[in-house]
């Protein structure tokens, strides 16, 4: 129909989030707090339509976050768009999940994702991501909210080498996403990708985390910061 209408039914990856659930598409081994807070998968239907060569529209009905076989009476709307300019050096993405996540009590959830990408000087890429969520009846009838800012900077040296940097601030205002009460999480990751063969990528990463919370979240609840080395 028109430019090509595509509809899928079943269990599929969420359209919210810059980082990918399948690992090979990501720059880093670890994930941002924003990615770990957002829905990984959805169950239902999703329709996408290329309004033009630069604009993709999406809309569907799903059974909430990461839900496959429960709460079939609780449905949510998901939708958004992806836009890129003619030269494909700039893009903007928007997606939302809005609806009930439980069919036994009021449980309205609104999750909004936006991301802006700008390519600089050819192989240097900058991405700014913002997430925001609100949920009813999180604890004893009280609502919860969370929001974040994530920045990505990557530089493709050549087809084998790529350098990357990620910084993030995640505010878990009511402790709904990570369970350590009201908290702000900060993380910085630096790393590189080496692709010696088409089927092999090595990804060393250095990551530092710091949290401002009532209860320290790291090292079994005794530290407010941690250093992570990954490969």
Q: What's this entry about, in short?
A:
The protein is mainly β and 231 residues long. It has 1 helix and 13 strands.
Summarize the structure in words.
This protein is mainly beta. 2% of the residues lie in helices and 59% in strands. It is built from one helix and 13 strands. A hairpin with a 5-residue loop joins β4 (76-84) and β5.
Q: Can you lay out the helices and strands and say which pair or pack?
A:
Elements: E1 6-13, H1 33-37, E2 41-52, E3 55-62, E4 76-84, E5 90-100, E6 108-120, E7 124-139, E8 142-156, E9 161-172, E10 183-197, E11 200-202, E12 205-213, E13 225-230
Antiparallel strand pairs: 1-2, 2-3, 3-4, 4-5, 5-6, 6-7, 7-8, 8-9, 9-10, 10-11, 10-12, 12-13
Characterize the main sheet: 13 strands, antiparallel
Helix content: under 10%
What structural class do helix, strand and pairing data support? mainly beta
Q: Could you tell me the strand content as a percent range?
A: over 45%
Number of helices: 1
Low-confidence stretches: none
Keywords:
231 residues, mainly beta, 13-stranded antiparallel β-sheet, 1 helix, 13 strands, 59% strand, globular
